[in-house]
Design brief:
- Strands 1-4-9-12 form a four-stranded parallel beta sheet, with no helix packed on it.
- It is elongated and about 45 Å long.
- The protein has strands spanning 2-4, 9-11, 16-17, 22-24, 26-30, 35-39, 42-44, 49-50, 55-56, 61-62, 67-68, 73-74.
- 20% of the residues are buried.
- With 80 residues, the chain is mainly beta.
Length: 80
């Protein structure tokens, strides 16, 4: 499991995280002539399963009682 910026990640109770999951609260986004650092908290609710090989970007919110299939990419600001 890879976590970037633990202080910007909120994880509920009874959460199972599979092998090689990445949780990233920051990402560098290219713009026309420069780069932008995008930072936002990642929130994972209670009773959540995050399948192996998944990646969660900044601003992702996973609601309670959610199953995230293996190798799922949740891009910035997605809510599931």
């Amino acid at each position: 499991m890879e976590i970037a910026d633990r202080g910007l990640i909120e994880i509920g109770d009874r959460v199972v995280v599979g092998h090689r999951v990445g949780i990233y609260s920051q990402v560098i986004k290219p713009r026309k002539q420069d780069l932008m650092l995008y930072v936002k908290k990642v929130k994972i609710g209670n009773n959540v399963f995050v399948g192996a090989g998944s990646h969660l970007g900044p601003g992702v919110v996973i609601d309670n009682n959610t199953f995230v299939a293996a190798v799922t990419n949740l891009y910035p600001d997605r809510q599931v």
